[in-house]
Amino acid sequence: MNSISVNKFRENLKGFVEQVVTQHLSLKVTRRNGDDFVVLSAEDWEREQETLYVLQNNDLMKQIAASTATHSKNKGYKPTAEELNEITGI
Question: What residues pair up with 30 in beta bridges, in sequence order?
Answer without folding.
Answer: 5
